[in-house]
Every structure is written in C-alpha cells, then in structure tokens.
Amino acid sequence: IVKGDDVGEEVQFLDDTDPFNSTNFPEPTRPPLYTFREDIALITQLSGVHRLLRAPHKLDDCTLQLSHNGTYLDLESTLAEQRDELEGFQEDRERRESLCCKTPCNGTY
C-alpha cells in the first residue's frame, strides 16, 4: 500500500533472543500493518514498529529484515534510498511478505 511518501507494510518479529531456541517463527501470525515514511530513516521509525509489535528485543538490538529474501535493511537509510533491496518485495501478492524485526546476525547490521 503506497500513499505519497507513505508505504504500508505488514510487520512481524522473530523472537531470536534465545540463541538455543531453534523453533522460531515470525509473530504475530496475523501481522499488523505499519505505515513507513519513505523519506525518513528507518532508525527513526523502528521504535514505532517495536512498540506496535511488543517485540521482546531491546530496541538497540533490533534491525529490519525482508522476509522474501533475508536482506537486512540499512537503518540509517530511508526506504526510498533502498529501492534495489526492496526489488521483488510484495510483487507476489499470493505470498505473505513482511518486514521482520529481529536481532541482526553476528551482531551487525
């Protein structure tokens, strides 16, 4: 869903706070819609996503990952600046794609 500089995307979190838990699935199963501003850095919008999801992660430990290809988004950049990474995202409406709030692999973004 796109309105001007706003992009509505389904968001979920992956509770990967326990490294020994190997049965993690994105939650909630019915992802809510979060409206991102294309022209504002994702780091500024992450707290709203975190609050909406009531994610168990510490906010400082969170990043956003695309569900369709596993790409981590650069939180210092805007969605508009990351159009190449978003290519293919939400093109197939049969598959439910979402942005996933999680702990970054290896502790890096």
Automatic annotation (TrEMBL):
One of its GO terms (cellular component) is cytoplasm. Keywords: Coiled coil. The keyword Coiled coil applies. Gene3D superfamilies: Leucine-rich Repeat Variant. InterPro entries: ARM-like (IPR011989), FHOD1_GBD_N (IPR041387). Residues 11-92 form the FHOD1 N-terminal GTPase-binding domain. The keyword Coiled coil applies. It comes from the Eukaryota. Residues 72-99 form a coiled coil. GO terms for biological process: cardiac myofibril assembly; cortical actin cytoskeleton organization; sarcomere organization. GO terms for molecular function: actin filament binding. PANTHER family: FH1_FH2 DOMAIN-CONTAINING PROTEIN 3 (PTHR45920:SF3), FORMIN HOMOLOGY 2 DOMAIN CONTAINING, ISOFORM I (PTHR45920). This is FHOD1 N-terminal GTPase-binding domain-containing protein. It comes from Pelusios castaneus (West African mud turtle).
